[in-house]
Amino acid sequence: MIPAAAESALDVAGAVRRGERTARSVTETALEMIAAREPELHAFLHVAADEARAAADSIDDALRAGRDPGPLAGVPVALKDNLCTRGIPTTCASKILEGWRPPYDATVVVRLRDAGAVVVGKTNLDEFAMGSSTENSCQGPTCHPMDPTRVPGGSSGGSAAAVGAGLVPLALGSDTGGSVRQPAALCGTVGMKPTYGLVSRYGLVAFASSLDQIGPLAGSVADAALLLEVIAGHDPLDSTSLDHPVPQVSRSIDAGVDRMRVGLVDELVDDTAPDVARRIREAAEELAQAGALVEEVAVPEMRLGLSAYYLIAPAEASSNLARYDGVRYGLRVEAPDVAAMNTATRTAGFGPEVKRRIMLGTYALSAGYYDAYYGKAQRARTLIVRAFDRAYERFDVLLGATAPSTAFAIGERTADPLAMYMSDVCTIPSNLAGHPAMSVPFGTGDDGLPVGVQILAPALGEERMFQVAAALERAAGARWR
Predict the structure, then answer these.
(1) Strand positions, DSSP E, 156-289
(2) Which of 136, 229, 300, 307 has the fewest CB atoms within 10 Å distance of its CB?
(3) Which of 325, 346, 377 is the last residue of a domain?
């Protein structure tokens, strides 16, 4: 059975704006729920209780003064702890940033607060967003909201678990190779990665800059649409930000899928567990019954994604993480000279997976190996982009699995990095292409844990993607209510 989501963000905001509830009472309820489940889940690294209460009181004051606090008035929101929050710890679940309090807010955090949201805390993640299970955190793993012996996925596992457990209606994560969508699928929530550049990355602690994108996790498609509209839009502080109107996805979710051209991707069905594949095919059948034109399609270039990603992403990480040197901020381990201090600081500060990826990326960029590895991976990336372009000439959206299996046991894959990396095999291609994609819950696997269906769309195709997502959500509700 899918876990019950928190109260709808739309319902909470509406009640607060109408004066039927106070932002303070909503916030107190969320904090009580977090306190009750946190010992079991470990979804949060920092609960910002005092700051949340102050923000809620400001919203109530604005309402009493006759001012509209915004579309997310009083809605509790959790933030992945790689999003900078002024004066509130931002650690990326790494010892090297232990206790660091940024002097500024990420753009998405500013936009949330301007919309009336109440930030209740920072969620756990795989260190520097490098992982698929939230087991790589220096503060210990997050547990699945339905089964504490299972992982919630990663790297945004804390955010997905917080929404999946009903602690908050909304959360933000970051998606570099599937780190919003894969945990959303495992935890039974909605999760989406926007088109690259649609949401500002200013204030997101970088992992792989050409792949990273911030995205919403929510209990429903409508709530995810609302959150996307709040955080999206051009930002002059981010040089990769698109100067493009924000897609009005909320108005598209009731449009249906009649005559929509949907491609069921062979590679996103055949390479999954049988129980997952069965649910994906059932989802395709539901779309066909709703009027969509569904046809199977092969995109074999997708199979290049995993190997290309694990050269490109580590290469960018080796550059981005060079700033953690013990000199400017974060951990510093004293040593006789600067070089020794750098080495000692990084040895103590970075965990095994981060070290593994830094070494892999540095090797791929090194003289004599650049063309053989990094250059070849970039050429594979181009092949994937071109393959998507051909597919989208025939189809409006593509359909497949979000994750190849349901949630696996804690510790099951930690000794086998390749098995862990395979957890993102379905999601990575969209990051390499820069395209939007999202996961919607659609029933459960044989173990009773959630299965997520993935909808992929071309760049800036969010409106049609949300149409299909809403249709699947309605179909799932009709099947399993």
Answers:
(1) 170-174, 190-193, 214-218, 261-265
(2) 300
(3) 377
| Residue of 8, 80, 94, 193 with catalytic role | 80
| Among 263, 272, 275, CA closest to 299 | 263
Asked if residue 59 and residue 176 are part of one domain, the reply reads yes
The residue with tokens 């928190």 is 6
Is the separation of the CB atoms in 406 and 151 below 8 Å? Answer: no
CA 307 to chain centre: 21
What residue has token string 């915004």?
70
Omega of the bond leading into 155 within 30 degrees of 0 (cis): yes
Among residues 132, 155, 159, 174, which one is catalytic?
Answer: 155
Question: Which of 94, 137, 159, 179 is flagged as catalytic?
Answer: 179
Is 179 assigned a catalytic role?
yes
CA-nearest of 438, 406, 396, 405 to 220 is 438
What pLDDT, in 10s, does the model give residues 18-53? 999 999 999 999 999 999 999 999 999 999 999 999
Q: Can you say whether the dihedral through the CA atoms of 301, 420, 405, 450 is positive or negative? A: negative
Tell me which residue range forms the domain holding 203.
Answer: 9-262+395-480
CA distance 291 to 281: 16
What per-residue confidence (pLDDT) applies to 6? Answer: 67
pLDDT number for residue 223? 98
pTM of this structure: 0.97
Question: Which phi and psi angles does 290 have, rounded to 5°?
Answer: -85, 0
**pLDDT recorded at residue 360:** 95
What is residue 5's predicted lDDT score, i.e. its pLDDT? 52
Q: 208 with 71, same domain?
A: yes
Low-confidence residues of the chain: pLDDT under 70: 1-6, 481
